[in-house]
Design a protein that fits this description.
Elements lengths: L5 E6 L5 H13 L3 E6 L1 H6 L2 H8 L6 H4 L8 H8 L2 E7 L1 H9 L5 H7 L5 E5 L3 H5 L1 H11 L4 E3 L3 E4 L5 E5 L3 H14 L9 E6 L4 E4 L2 E3 L6 H12 L3 E6 L4 H5 L6 E4 L3 H12 L4 E4 L6 E3 L18 E3 L3 H8 L5 E8 L4 H10 L4 E6 L11 E8 L4 E8 H13 L2
Parallel strand pairs: 1-2, 1-3, 3-4, 4-5, 8-11, 8-13, 11-12, 13-16, 16-17
Antiparallel strand pairs: 6-7, 9-10, 14-15, 17-18, 18-19
The chain binds cytidine-5'-triphosphate (CTP).
Cytidine-5'-triphosphate binds next to α14, β16 and α15.
């Protein structure tokens, strides 16, 4: 997704500038071309040489601004060259300039001299962030179609305050850049509400033992990210997922944590009415122990065989609640032949689209960062997606749902 894309990374004067080193390094390693522009203040946090080494190209600062650029002024050349611009960390000062179209340094002039999508990642002290004027500037940026935003998170700040103002994590920013590189900033899901399930469910026998499966939630998170990056309002109902993976998802997504299939069923039903698209990417446990003990069972009391009962099929039940304008999407994680069972599920569950993916192929399926799939629609269309990142597959799934 990033290979051969041209990025201008504009670095502002905040301590989070050190985290941008990791972003520049990842972009360069992924095959992107990167040009870094630092403000005067940014240079006091990270030396241009650091960014030059990581981007494999000289980094620019304001002293380069007035140097005769060959053949044209540097901000014009950079602005025209860029496919995408990342601004991180964005200070209150730079945010104000962006909101009002001011240009008094190389970074802001480059932004104005370009037409490509810009991802804006602010970072500042909580009191600064909460100022009405800063919030007004932030809203102005958010309502400008050219700017994509990744808001600051909450946590311990370098000024020792605990509050909102931490720059989004490099992994979140990189995921957003991957999406922008894929879509070139299209917001084709604006005004869409997308409800997604992710991860596994756990069906307990007692407080310490359960029936579950190895789904990690990566595919569901990728779908949530991709839909959010394209402008959708996203709700993610998820089973137990590693905190590290959840932290990679944008905080603008609304998370609904559940544990059992019954809880997932309730949560999905609860959010179904307002959703335009409902995507069941979760691996729901098909059965649960017929009874669940409230206290831990001693080893000697465990039964030799476990009486089981089926859990409701969530997709099948959701279908009975949907209006005709809502779309229902399922997944079929299969071994061996993936097509026939997926087609059967597409029909049996009344789906608009199903994503059949092999879990017995290298680098695909549970826990992997990549996946491959065949997308089948109720109209009989088939699209084969070769091995790619889960985020890229998520975009292809959304493309197909959109074209239904
Ligand atoms: N699914 C569901 N509720 C269940 C089981 C599965 O909503 N109780 C959904 C999954 O989220 C997925 C789709 O149904 O989107 C297919 O799941 P899968 O486990 O492949 O299908 P099953 O119907 O359980 O069939 P089988 O296990 O026999 O393959």
């Amino acid at each position: 997704m990033l290979s051969h894309r041209k990025f201008v990374v504009g670095v502002g004067g905040g301590i989070a500038a050190y985290k941008v080193c990791e972003i520049v390094s990842s972009l360069a390693k992924a095959g992107a071309e990167v040009r870094v522009v630092l403000t005067d203040r940014a240079e006091q946090f990270v030396a241009p040489l650091t960014f030059a080494s990581l981007s494999r190209h000289r980094a620019y600062n304001d002293s380069d601004f007035w140097e005769a650029a060959e053949p044209r002024p540097l901000h014009i050349a950079l602005g025209e060259w860029a496919d995408l611009i990342l601004l991180a960390p964005v200070t209150a000062n730079t945010l104000a300039k962006l909101a009002h179209g001011l240009a008094d340094n190389l970074l802001t002039n480059t932004v104005l001299a370009s037409a490509c999508p810009v991802l804006v990642a602010p970072a500042m002290n909580t009191d600064m962030w909460e100022q009405m004027t800063v919030q007004q500037n932030w809203q102005a940026i958010r309502s400008n179609p050219r700017y994509h935003t990744i808001g600051p998170g909450a946590g311990l700040l370098a000024c020792d305050r605990v509050g909102t103002g931490r720059m989004a994590e490099p992994s979140q920013i990189l995921a957003h850049l991957h999406s922008l590189a894929d879509t070139l900033g299209k917001r084709d899901l604006e005004n869409k509400q997308v409800l997604i399930s992710a991860g596994s469910t756990r069906e307990f026998l007692d407080p310490v033992r359960f029936i579950g499966n190895p789904a990690t939630g990566k595919m569901g998170i990728a779908l949530a990210q991709a839909a959010h990056h394209r402008g959708a309002t996203v709700t993610l109902v998820h089973g137990p997922i590693e905190a590290r993976l959840l932290a990679e998802a944008d905080s603008a997504i609304s998370f609904v944590p559940i544990t059992t299939a019954a809880e997932m069923h309730q949560a999905m039903l609860c959010h179904t009415k307002t959703a335009d698209w409902i995507i069941m990417a979760a691996a729901v446990a098909d059965v649960r122990p017929a009874s669940c003990s409230g206290a831990k069972l001693p080893k000697g009391d465990l039964p030799d065989s476990l009486p089981l009962q089926s859990v409701p099929d969530i997709l099948q039940d959701l279908r009975t609640h949907l209006r005709s304008d809502q779309k229902l999407i399922g997944f079929a994680a299969q071994t061996g032949d993936i097509i026939a069972p997926a087609l059967d599920k597409l029909k049996r569950k009344g789906l608009d689209l199903i994503v059949a993916n092999p879990i017995d192929q290298p680098s695909s399926g549970f826990g992997s960062s990549t996946n491959q799939a065949v997308i089948l629609t109720r109209h009989g269309d088939r699209t084969d997606i070769p091995l790619c990142s889960k985020l890229e597959l998520a975009h292809r799934v959304l493309d197909q749902v959109r074209s239904l």
